From TrEMBL, chain A:
This is Uncharacterized protein. The keyword Cell inner membrane does not apply. NCBIfam families: hemK_rel_arch (TIGR00537). Its main location: nucleus. It comes from the Eukaryota. It is found in: Nucleus. SUPFAM superfamilies: S-adenosyl-L-methionine-dependent methyltransferases. GO terms for biological process: methylation. Keywords: Methyltransferase, Nucleus, S-adenosyl-L-methionine, Transferase. GO terms for molecular function: protein methyltransferase activity; S-adenosylmethionine-dependent methyltransferase activity. One of its GO terms (cellular component) is nucleus.
UniProtKB/TrEMBL annotation, chain B:
GO terms for biological process: rRNA (guanine-N7)-methylation; tRNA methylation. Interacts with TRM9. Belongs to the TRM112 family. SUPFAM superfamilies: Trm112p-like. Pfam families: Trm112p. This is Trm112p-domain-containing protein. It comes from Amanita muscaria (strain Koide BX008). GO terms for molecular function: protein heterodimerization activity.
Length: 215, 123
């Protein structure tokens, strides 16, 4: 078991503004650790995390894969970008964090180039007004507000995943049972050309969490 | 964080701006250099992903003219170490990046580039 990154520099003040790592985050870390050997074997050079929040996931990936990779991260929440950078340097790693939505300005240059991509998206079912407002305000609400089936933000991103992934690239996505895992996988396959499998699942309180990956 | 490696991967994504939207042009750049671990394998593996002339030009905008105009075929240690320094150790802390096509300006503040556009709000 690899240790989780040191987050002791973040306080409850930060967690009023950004997402505090929780069961979903840790399940994603477990999935990446489970696949660590396979990920190393693909000799990755580019990792991209969408919605990096505290920066915990990207820093963990850095601990698994080391310095022969560039770690890129994006978040719409500016304070999350700051925390992502702070977490990287606290753990003596480096992340190139961008304040932007989804893969924003990276899309043009990273076609077929991303080897490992992760997204723990805002997946909580809410009204459509709520997701719109959260995306516009770019605050803590944007960490969970996911629209009617919790899939509004995720669906936007799914439509560009295939274009970004390198031939051996893998994409990891966090989802809830309530998002309808079967329907997500069906949609990924039919609409986005992405074959997926379930890497891990876990019940945590009221949430039944899944990690899907495209390989 | 904006380093020249990051800059080499960012293009303007304003709606309708799809050609001549790369590389973004620096202005008022304030830079800092910070040491990073040298990893020759990474530099070698990343070379084919670089837009070389965009990198040479961006470095020049920051006052660094150490890169050859054409990427060499033979990658010796000295070249790799210098490329490492230019790509990974120069940090642009403040300033902005402007699109050569539509002139949209992306500010950089405290080392974080702001690539948000009003139009990327998810509808
Ligand atoms: C559930 S949190 C996950 C945070 C962190 N990756 C983790 O696992 O703990 C979702 C994150 O996505 C960010 N986010 C929401 N909408 C986004 C968008 N359109 N583009 C980029 N990031 C977004 C939120 O600000 C938040 O940091």
């Amino acid at each position: 078991m690899l240790p989780t990154p040191d987050l002791s520099h973040l306080s409850s003040k930060d967690y009023e503004l950004i997402y505090e790592p929780a069961e979903d985050t840790f399940l994603l870390l477990d999935a990446l650790e489970k696949d660590a050997e396979a990920l190393r074997a693909t000799k990755p050079t580019v990792c991209l995390e969408i919605g990096s929040g505290s920066g915990c996931v990207t820093t963990f990936l850095n601990q698994i894969l080391g310095s022969s990779v560039i770690y890129l991260a994006t978040d719409v929440n500016l304070h999350a970008c700051r925390c992502t950078c702070a977490t990287a340097s606290r753990n003596k790693t480096i992340v190139d964090c961008i304040h932007g939505s989804l893969a924003c300005g990276l899309h043009h240059r990273l076609k077929d180039a991303v080897d490992i991509m992760t997204f723990n998206p805002p997946y909580v079912p809410t009204t459509s007004e709520e997701v719109l407002m959260a995306q516009e305000k770019r605050d803590i609400q944007g960490a969970w507000a996911g629209g009617v089936d919790g899939m509004d933000v995720t669906n936007h991103f799914l439509s560009v995943v295939k274009e970004l992934l390198s031939p051996q690239g893998r994409f990891y996505l966090v989802a809830l049972k309530a998002n309808d895992i079967k329907a997500i996988r069906q949609k990924m396959l039919i609409e986005n050309g992405l074959k997926s499998n379930i890497v891990l699942e876990r019940k945590a309180g009221r949430e039944h969490l899944f990690i899907l990956s495209t390989r | 964080m904006v380093r020249l490696i990051t800059h080499n991967l960012l293009a303007c994504h304003a709606r309708g701006c799809t050609s001549n939207n790369f590389p973004l042009r620096f202005s008022d750049a304030q830079i800092e250099t910070r040491k990073a671990d040298f990893n020759a394998d990474f530099i070698r593996a990343f070379m084919p992903k670089l837009e070389w002339s965009a990198l040479v030009d961006a470095a020049k905008q920051l006052g660094d003219t150490s890169l050859p105009l054409e990427a060499p075929d033979m990658l010796d240690e000295e070249f790799l170490k210098n490329l490492h320094r230019v790509l990974l150790e120069i940090h642009i802390e403040e300033g902005s990046m402007t699109c050569p096509n539509c002139n949209h300006r992306y500010p950089i503040s405290n080392g974080i580039p702001n690539m948000l556009l009003a139009e990327d709000e998810i509808a």
